[in-house]
């Protein structure tokens, strides 16, 4: 299974031999990373999770200070605001509703997170098997929210979901595949980590890292691969359990 962060490059990546990814963007209620306008322009569907709409309304003009704020807000209009509606400000909700944004009130459902609701919505509204969901604001806030977001990766192992912040990106490596991670050295690395999720890893093997794993066991209470270093342009990973991959992003 091939992974790449080329979506973060300033110039669009060249078309490959496979089908084009259907990119969806989900914005959570945390400050927007610096590359939010770039990813917005590459997404076919943009969904704000509840208070994520506040972040777009306030944050996009801050990221583009040389442009008229009203024009920026009109240009960066979410397609959907979805969640239990306990965080989005009334004036922001009204502004986007008047602009044609679809408002989906899920306040009746208190058993799933706003991110879970948004991922379910995106999956149901995409017919592309090569779907890629980029999530902004998934880390950097409350720890329980971060763990809930990581749990969503584990709950949707067959969907390519990437959690993004200014500091790092995170995605799941399902145990059902061998993985090739193509490193974009101009934007990511060198620090990285591999963390078992759902169960201990009885055997993980890697190449391309400074401290490679060779049929290595990983578990909480024992070894997990944190503060590792990317050494090559391609990292390979095989494991008998699902793993979380994370790599630092350069400023």
From TrEMBL:
GO terms for cellular component: cytosol. It is found in: Cytoplasm, Cytosol. Keywords: ATP-binding, Cytoplasm, Kinase, Nucleotide-binding, Transferase. Pathway: Cofactor biosynthesis; thiamine diphosphate biosynthesis; thiamine diphosphate from thiamine: step 1/1. Its EC number is 2.7.6.2. GO terms for biological process: thiamine diphosphate biosynthetic process; thiamine metabolic process. InterPro entries: Thi_PPkinase (IPR006282), Thiamin_pyrophosphokinase_euk (IPR016966), Thiamin_PyroPKinase_B1-bd (IPR007373), TPK_B1-bd_sf (IPR036371), TPK_catalytic (IPR007371), TPK_catalytic_sf (IPR036759). It is an enzyme of class 2 (transferase). Residues 177-244 form the Thiamin pyrophosphokinase thiamin-binding domain. GO terms for molecular function: ATP binding; kinase activity; thiamine binding; thiamine diphosphokinase activity. SMART domains: TPK_B1_binding. SUPFAM superfamilies: Thiamin pyrophosphokinase, catalytic domain, Thiamin pyrophosphokinase, substrate-binding domain. The keyword Secreted does not apply. Gene3D superfamilies: Thiamin pyrophosphokinase, catalytic domain, Thiamin pyrophosphokinase, thiamin-binding domain. It catalyses: thiamine + ATP = thiamine diphosphate + AMP + H(+). Catalyzes the phosphorylation of thiamine to thiamine pyrophosphate (TPP). TPP is an active cofactor for enzymes involved in glycolysis and energy production. Plant leaves require high levels of TPP for photosynthesis and carbohydrate metabolism. PANTHER family: THIAMIN PYROPHOSPHOKINASE, THIAMIN PYROPHOSPHOKINASE 1. Belongs to the thiamine pyrophosphokinase family. This is Thiamine pyrophosphokinase.
């Amino acid at each position: 299974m091939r992974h790449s962060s080329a979506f973060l490059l300033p110039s669009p990546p060249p078309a490959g031999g496979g089908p084009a990814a259907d990119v969806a963007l989900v914005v959570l209620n945390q400050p927007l990373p610096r590359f939010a306008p770039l990813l917005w322009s590459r997404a076919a569907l943009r969904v704000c999770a509840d208070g994520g709409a506040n972040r777009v309304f306030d944050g996009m003009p801050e990221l583009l200070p040389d442009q008229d704020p009203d024009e920026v807000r009109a240009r960066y209009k979410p397609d959907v605001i979805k969640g239990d509606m306990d965080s989005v400000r009334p004036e922001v909700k009204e502004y986007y509703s008047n602009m044609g944004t679809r408002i989906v009130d899920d306040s009746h459902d208190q058993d799933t997170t706003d991110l879970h609701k948004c991922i379910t919505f995106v999956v149901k509204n995409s017919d592309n098997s090569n779907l890629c969901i980029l999530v902004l604001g998934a880390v950097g806030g409350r720890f329980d929210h971060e763990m809930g977001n990581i749990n969503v990766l584990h709950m949707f192992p067959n969907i390519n979901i990437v959690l993004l912040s200014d500091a790092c990106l995170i995605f799941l490596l399902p145990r059902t595949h061998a993985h090739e991670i193509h490193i974009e050295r101009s934007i990511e690395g060198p620090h990285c980590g591999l963390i078992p999720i759902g169960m201990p890893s009885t055997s993980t093997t890697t190449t391309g890292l400074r401290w490679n794993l060779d049929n290595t066991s990983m578990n909480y209470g024992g070894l997990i691969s944190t503060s590792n270093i990317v050494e090559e342009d391609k990292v390979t990973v095989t494991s008998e359990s699902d793993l979380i991959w994370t790599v630092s992003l350069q400023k």
